[in-house]
Amino acid sequence: MEGVARARASHLNPFIAGPFVLKVVSLVGVFLGNGLGLACTNIYYPSLRQALAEDAYLGRVTASTSWLILGAVPIDTAAAGALQGLIGLRWTLVCEAIGLLFGVLWVLGARIRNLRTLPDRASIEMTEESPLVSQADQVQIEA
User: Which of 23, 54, 107, 128 is least surrounded, with the fewest CB atoms within 10 Å of its CB?
Assistant: First the structure.
């Protein structure tokens, strides 16, 4: 049974050669880093979205962002499958790692990195040239 576990660990982590313990430690580190990143994203992003979106549009903003994010999953899966068929598993994983690094670089270069407190909706400057919603699309909501 131990041989099966070692074989599976070597397939899960094809870039690390060496003893079984090194492979397990590297996988634990990868999953820990991924979990911390997901936890931070799942806390900070909804808080920022709730602070910036007006109450009347919060449901629409949440649904739209969820649709865009989850709508990319099947496209990414199909692209990864096609890429794996063309260049193999190892180079597909390299391409995906490079793509993840570009995502990190995008966040590091964004203005949100310097944001220390959530802005108040009243402090967001809106001009008539660039409103969030055009005057024709605004709906009067009566309480």
Answer: 128
- Dmax over CA atoms of the chain, in Å, equals 68
CA dihedral in degrees (92, 98, 101, 106; nearest 10)? Answer: -110
Is 117 contained in some domain?
no
pTM > 0.85: no
- The residue among 91, 92, 59 whose CA lies nearest residue 76 is 92
Domain for residue 133, yes or no?
no
**H helices within 1-143, ranges in order?**
2-12, 20-52, 58-87, 89-108
Q: How far apart are CA 84 and CA 64, in angstroms?
A: 30
CA distance 71 to 73: 6
Write the single-letter amino acid at 20. F
Whether residue 48 is found in the same domain as residue 60: no
- What is the token pair recorded at 37? 């990143």
What range does the domain containing 93 cover?
Answer: 55-111
Residue 123 falls inside a structural domain:
no
Predicted confidence (pLDDT) per residue in 95-141, tens digit: 888 888 887 787 777 777 777 776 666 556 555 554 555 555 555 55
Cα–Cα distance measured from residue 107 to residue 114, given in angstroms and rounded to the nearest whole number: 11
